[in-house]
Design brief:
By secondary structure, this protein is an alpha/beta fold. Helices cover about 35% and strands about 15% of the residues. Strands 1-2-7-9-8-10-11-12-13-14 form a ten-stranded mixed beta sheet, sandwiched between helices. It has a two-stranded antiparallel ribbon with strand order 3-4. Strand 3 and strand 4 form a beta hairpin. Helix 7 runs parallel beside helix 12. The longest helix is centred in the C-terminal third of the chain and has 27 residues. The radius of gyration is 21 Å and the shape is globular.
C-alpha cells in the first residue's frame, strides 16, 4: 500500500504496477506470486505499441515487460469481502494501457462497494500476431494477449483476498477490444471459474478473426521484414520496428474490421490451431448454455461508428451507395441482392453514403450481435441485460462515450446530463458485480428488452427487434 486517494464517497487505497506474470517474447505468460514487501507506489510500464502514445499517461514508459495490474480498494472494506471488478482497456488490441484515466478503477472503489483492478496485456505483434503454426519457439503464440488476461485473472483469484476482495465474486468488464476480450473468456476453457459476471461495453460476442486471416496477417508482417523464410528471427527483431511493422500492415480503412472474413488484429478463432486458446466462438458457447451461470450485461451506443463518420470522414466514406453494397456483400460473403436490401434499410432520412455506412455498421457490428448474444444466453437459462446508450447534452453517443462512467471517473467538463448518464453506467456495473440483478432493468427473455439511456433516438427494444428482422438469416460470427 502506498498512498490514500480522496474520492467522492470513500477514501481509497491503491497498489500500482503489481507484476502478475512474466513472459518472454511470443511465449505464454507465467503467473508470479505477490511480493508484499514492495511499495507499489508507481504505475508500471505500459504495453509497447506504435503510434501516438501521449494520451496514455504512461509515467514509466513502455515495455514488452508490461504484465502488471493496479488495485484500488476502499480504506475500510468492512468485515465481508467486496465484489471485485477487473477492467480490460480497449484500443483495437493495438493501443491502450492501464495507466490512463479511463482505466483508473479507483472511482469504483470510492463507492465503497467494490475492489477495482485494471490490467495490462500485450498489444500489437507482441500479444496478437498469430505464429503458432510455425511451431518451434513460436508454438505458443496464439491469442497471447488473451492468455495474459487469463493469467491476470488467475493472479486475482490467488491474491485478491489480501486486498479485501472476494475471489468468488469477480466481474470482468471492458470497453471495445476489452469487451470483446471479456466475452471471449466464455470460449476459453482455461478461464473457467475465474469470473462470475461479465459486462461488455461496445464489444460483442462476434468479430473473431478466422485462422486463415490470422495466418495472412502473420505472413504480411514476416514479408515486410524479409523473414518469411525464417519466422523465428522475429524473436530478435527490434521491438519498436516490430510494432511499427505490424501497425503498417493493417488496413487504413476503419470499416475493414467490421467484415466477418478479415485478417485484421483481434481475437483469433484458433480452435484448429496449435495450442489454441478457444474451444469455440463465444456466440455458440452462449447458445450451448455452458456458462448459463454467468450474469452478462451487453451494452452499446446508438451511434457507435459516428466517431469515424464525423472525424475520419474521407477515410470512412464509401463514395456511393453502390460501392457500399459491393463492399458489404464481399466482406460478409452474402449475395449482392441481399446486401442491397440491407443497405436500403439504412439509406433513409437523407443520409449521405458515409452516414449510411456508419448507421449500418453500428447495427451490424454492435446492436445485432449483442441482441443475439443476450437472447441466446437467456434462452439457455442465463441472466442477460441489454443497455443502449444514447446521446446527452455535450456527448454524442459514439464509440467510447461511456468510458469514464465504466470506471467511475469524473469526466472533465461534463454536463449535468453526462454526469447522470455516467453515474447510471457505473451503478449498473456495481449492481451486476454485487449479484443484485434485480436492481437493474427488465432482463432479456424471449424478447430483447433493452434499457435506453440518455436522449434516445428510438425505443431501444423496438430497435433491437427491427435489427434482428433486417439481418434475419445473416451470420455474424
Amino acid at each position: 500500500m502506498t498512498h490514500t486517494d480522496t474520492a467522492d464517497q470513500s477514501a481509497v487505497r491503491s497498489w500500482l504496477g503489481i507484476p502478475y506474470a512474466t513472459a518472454d517474447r511470443f511465449r505464454s505468460p507465467r503467473v508470479v506470486p505477490f511480493d508484499p514487501g514492495l511499495p507499489y507506489d508507481q504505475k508500471g510500464p505500459a504495453p509497447l505499441q506504435a503510434g501516438d502514445t501521449s494520451w496514455l499517461e504512461a509515467d514509466n514508459g513502455f515495455s514488452e515487460d508490461c504484465l502488471n495490474l493496479n488495485i484500488w480498494a476502499p480504506t475500510d472494506t468492512g468485515d465481508d469481502p467486496l465484489p471485485v471488478i477487473v477492467y480490460i482497456f480497449g484500443g483495437g488490441w493495438m493501443l491502450g494501457a492501464n495507466t490512463q484515466t479511463t482505466s483508473n478503477a479507483s472511482g469504483l472503489a470510492a463507492t465503497g462497494r467494490a475492489v477495482g483492478v485494471s490490467i495490462n496485456y500485450r498489444l500489437n505483434a507482441f500479444g496478437w500476431l498469430s505464429l503458432s503454426q510455425y511451431g518451434g519457439a513460436l508454438a505458443e503464440a496464439t491469442n497471447l494477449g488473451l492468455q495474459d488476461i487469463i493469467a491476470a485473472l488467475q493472479w486475482v483469484r490467488a491474491n485478491i483476498a489480501r486486498f479485501g476482495g472476494d475471489p468468488d465474486n469477480v466481474t470482468v468488464t471492458g470497453h471495445s477490444a476489452g469487451a470483446y476480450s471479456a466475452l471471449s473468456l466464455l470460449a476459453a476453457p482455461s478461464a473457467d471459474g475465474l469470473y462470475h459476471h461479465l459486462a461488455a461495453f461496445s464489444g460483442m460476442p462476434a468479430r473473431q478473426v478466422p485462422a486463415r486471416g490470422a495466418e495472412e496477417r502473420a505472413h504480411a508482417v514476416l514479408t515486410a521484414l524479409g523473414l518469411q523464410d525464417d519466422p523465428e528471427q522475429l524473436l530478435d527483431v527490434d521491438a519498436k520496428l516490430l510494432a511499427e511493422t505490424m501497425a503498417a500492415t493493417q488496413s487504413s480503412d476503419p470499416g475493414a474490421a467490421h467484415g466477418v472474413d478479415n485478417d485484421l488484429i483481434a481475437i483469433v478463432d484458433d480452435r484448429t490451431r496449435p495450442n489454441g486458446v478457444l474451444a469455440d466462438v463465444p456466440m455458440r458457447v452462449l447458445e450451448s448454455g455452458q456458462h448459463r451461470d454467468i450474469n452478462i450485461l451487453f451494452s452499446s451506443t446508438t451511434h457507435e461508428l459516428d466517431w469515424w463518420v464525423l472525424h475520419k470522414t474521407d477515410e470512412f466514406d464509401p463514395g456511393s451507395i453502390d460501392a457500399l453494397v459491393a463492399e458489404f456483400a464481399t466482406r460478409n460473403r452474402m449475395p449482392r441482392s441481399r446486401a442491397r436490401t440491407i443497405v436500403a434499410a439504412y439509406d433513409t432520412d437523407g443520409r449521405t453514403p458515409v452516414q449510411v455506412r456508419g448507421a449500418l455498421l453500428t447495427d451490424f457490428s454492435f446492436t445485432l450481435p449483442q441482441t443475439r448474444g443476450a437472447l441466446a444466453h437467456a434462452a439457455a437459462g442465463g441472466n442477460a441485460h441489454l443497455l443502449s446508450i444514447g446521446p446527452v447534452e455535450g456527448a454524442h453517443a459514439v464509440h467510447g462515450t461511456e468510458m469514464y462512467g465504466i470506471v467511475g471517473q469524473p469526466r472533465p467538463g461534463a454536463s449535468d446530463a453526462q454526469i447522470v448518464r455516467d453515474t447510471f453506467v457505473r451503478d449498473a456495473l456495481l449492481a451486476l458485480a454485487s449479484g443484485n440483478t434485480e436492481a437493474l432493468w427488465e432482463p432479456v427473455t424471449t424478447v430483447p428488452a433493452a434499457k435506453g439511456l440518455g436522449d434516445m433516438p428510438y425505443d431501444a427494444t423496438v430497435h433491437a427487434k427491427d435489427v434482428l428482422e433486417t439481418f434475419s438469416g445473416i451470420n455474424r460470427p
